[in-house]
């Protein structure tokens, strides 16, 4: 398989040290993209670095393109770890902000290896993903058990890596069950950032999820098409509430409001804004302009952007 960096919105580039995943999450979109098994990339980190530098869309440097590592794989699956570290080592030299998400446990040794590979300590933010604690064995079958996975917060924090609890996707009637447990995790580990993400799906994924929801005696999800704003695939759409024009669903807002009221973590609605917040740089995707419903006004992005040339303020029209 070709492994070419994929540019999104002129602000972010997707880079994969492997394709496919063996975590078997029921809300996974990878089969919609054609990735059915976990396969390491045949390209090295240096190969990818050269491709990025040769691409005119790529803006190098700390305020340049965000490098999203592994959107189409689980980069910390055991046999992928060496190549993931190789990618981090090579790409960190570009100085760009990087982000990576996982449903595995990172121990202290691995966290120290990562930080030792970076150009500066907060260059890479680690997102620890979870959509359900109670039903983890149902919805995230072959991932690390939540109690083990959340130990990643300690490992990253003691190594000095920025780390974020990534509650994505919010599964209607499921994620809400665990809000008190998420609050406990955030407070127990002093998790500095929490990003909550809406649910994107296609009809095949919905069918699969609804079979599970029915077996658990939970209401099925209506196939109500929202915006096609997911950067992952033009086949995926945001699941919207019926009879509502709100950009954010009630399920999402319930989880967000609960966590806001009981923790002092910095809450976000999109991972790139977490990275901007960590690095104190203007939102690389210009979220406050292009996706205002995702902006939580964590900082003065507009003011910071005034220091940039006007030509760099590109307005992106969401696909609807
Ligand atoms: S102010 Fe808004 S756009 Fe800027 S980083 Fe914070 S959430 Fe994102």
Tell me the layout of helices and strands.
Layout: E1 6-8, E2 12-15, E3 18-19, E4 39-40, H1 45-54, E5 66-69, H2 81-92, E6 98-102, H3 108-115, E7 124-129, H4 136-139, H5 146-149, H6 151-159, E8 163-167, H7 179-188, E9 193-196, E10 200-201, H8 203-215, E11 237-238, H9 250-262, E12 266-268, H10 271-279, H11 287-290, H12 301-306
Helix pairs in contact: 1-2, 3-6, 7-9
This protein binds iron/sulfur cluster.
Overview of the molecule:
- Helices cover 32% and strands 13% of the residues.
- The chain is α/β, with parallel strands linked by helices and 320 residues long.
- The chain has one domain (6-312): pyruvate-formate lyase- activating enzyme (Alpha-Beta Horseshoe).
- The strands form three sheets. An eight-stranded mixed β-sheet has the order 1-2-5-6-7-8-9-12, sandwiched between helices.
- Helix 3 links the parallel strand 6 (98-102) and strand 7 (124-129).
- Helix 3 runs parallel beside helix 6 (151-159).
- 43% of the residues are buried.
- The model is unreliable at 310-320 (pLDDT under 50).
- Bound molecules: iron/sulfur cluster.
């Amino acid at each position: 398989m070709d492994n070419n960096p994929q540019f999104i919105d002129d602000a972010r580039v997707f880079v994969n040290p492997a394709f496919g995943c063996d975590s078997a999450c029921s809300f996974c979109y990878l089969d919609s993209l054609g990735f059915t098994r976990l396969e390491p990339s045949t390209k090295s980190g240096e190969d990818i670095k050269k491709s990025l530098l040769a691409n005119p869309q790529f803006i190098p440097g700390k305020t340049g393109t965000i490098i999203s590592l592994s959107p189409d794989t689980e980069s910390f699956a055991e046999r992928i770890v060496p190549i993931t570290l190789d990618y981090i080592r090579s790409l960190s030299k570009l100085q760009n902000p990087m982000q990576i998400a996982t449903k595995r446990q990172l121990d202290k040794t691995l966290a120290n290896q990562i930080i030792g590979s970076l150009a500066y300590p907060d260059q890479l933010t680690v997102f620890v993903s979870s959509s359900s604690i109670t039903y983890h064995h149902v919805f995230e079958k072959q991932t690390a058990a939540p109690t083990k996975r959340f130990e990643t917060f300690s490992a990253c924090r003691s190594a000095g890596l920025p780390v974020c609890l990534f509650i994505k996707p919010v599964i209607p009637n499921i994620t809400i069950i665990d809000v008190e447990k998420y609050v406990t995790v955030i407070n127990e580990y002093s998790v500095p950032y929490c990003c909550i993400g809406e649910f994107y799906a296609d009809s095949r994924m919905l069918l699969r999820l609804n079979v599970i929801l029915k077996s658990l005696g939970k209401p099925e999800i209506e196939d109500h098409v929202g915006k096609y704003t997911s950067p992952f695939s033009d086949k995926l759409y945001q699941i919207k509430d019926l009879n509502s024009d709100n950009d954010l669903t009630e399920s999402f807002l319930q989880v967000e409001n609960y966590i806001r009221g009981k923790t002092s973590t910095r809450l976000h609605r999109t991972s790139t804004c977490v990275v901007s917040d960590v690095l104190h740089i203007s939102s690389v995707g210009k979220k406050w302009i292009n996706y205002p419903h995702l902006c939580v006004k964590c900082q003065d992005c507009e003011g910071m952007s005034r220091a940039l040339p006007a030509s760099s303020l590109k307005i992106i029209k969401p696909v609807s």
